[in-house]
Write a structure and sequence with these properties.
This protein has 381 residues and is an alpha/beta fold. It is 40% helix and 14% strand. The chain has 3 domains: 146 residues, HAD superfamily/HAD-like (Rossmann fold, 3-Layer(aba) Sandwich); 64 residues, Putative phosphatase, domain 2 (DNA polymerase, domain 1, Orthogonal Bundle), CATH 1.10.150; 134 residues, Nucleoside diphosphate kinase-like domain (Alpha-Beta Plaits). The structure holds inosine-5'-diphosphate and magnesium ion (MG).
Length: 381
Amino acid sequence: MESNPQTSVGTGKTSSEKAVIWDMDGIIVDSAQHHLKGWQIVFQKRGANYTEEDFWRNTGKRSDTIVKNILGEKISSDEIMDIIREKDETFRQLMGKDIKALPGVLELITSLKEHGFKIAIASSAPIENIRLITQSLKIYNRFDAIISGWEVTKGKPNPQTFLLAAEKLGVEAKNCIVIEDAISGVTASKKAGMSCIAVTNTTPREELQEADLVINTLEKITIDDLENLLHQRSSYMEKSLVLIKPDAMQRGLAGTIIAHLEKQGLKLVAVKVLHLNKALARRHYAVHKDKPFFNGLVDYISSVPIVAAVFEGEEAIAVIRKTMGATDPAKAEAGTIRHDFGVDIEHNSVHGSDSIETAEKEIKLFFTEDEIFGYHPETGT
Ligand code: IDP
Ligand code: MG
């Protein structure tokens, strides 16, 4: 039998102590399908439909809130408890066979402990679920505190869950970093006055912008990143060149494409209209000089005026490449710029840099340093 992580109030706060507070479902494990199934079974029995859309709308919220959202406020608290118990039993039966940590989680926990961070779980889930998952991953004892959804009177997006975690850890809110995947959790962390890393495991990037850092996976995160975050710096900040190509300019799509990128949380830091001469076109596409399509591409990109822009943001390069879609519009995913607006593999509406090194070179071809602006009030850059 494993002993309980600390559940009493900490012995006073020291300003140098730092903590990472973990959400569980959608961050430590991918449990969404089992929760959905559990809810569908109990709601169906009571004549209510529970769609995937309902499920995602309620993600991160405590179970009693979810039951009331679906069956109405009139339901008695005894019945709510019965429904939740039944749902959680089904959930644990399904989940029990399938407990795997999401990429980077176990490594980050180890690294945090090595670097003197305190760690807690602050989940909306009941303690039985937290035990099942953390014990089978053999991490239950590594946490300095565990807060379940039922220890607070108000669940996320109320900040109580995180504030109680900080109190039990004995760490000031401003020295806590929350890791979350749900909008309600991100909101709760900001209301608690904490830093927040959102991971896009279950929610699209554009809906998580309230977080201080939005990343696609915990695999790449380092202790330096966390230190930077506590000091309000981001090491994930990148710049990328974007060109709005002739086919899009001719169809009046410049604004639409810029809007697509801004919606991803990227900031426009430089923009101009210019008519490329062949020499600049050749330099820009120099890596393709031996390709059969090179001359055609140079002629095309210099055929009419285009927009050149620099976008800045966390993981800007990957975010832009994903938003653009595959080079060939026929192969690009629905909803991407190239799928929605591209004509063919050459006339594919938009260019985005493919690496940090390429971005630096490409930006220099189009902009001088004083043409590039910033949104960092601290440094004025
Ligand atoms: P990317 O723009 O997705 O980074 P690259 O392979 O770097 O794709 O190619 C640069 C550009 O060259 C493409 O965006 C497209 O306009 C053009 N291109 C790529 N492959 C072909 C091809 O097979 N035929 C004609 N044009 C091509
Ligand atoms: Mg390229």
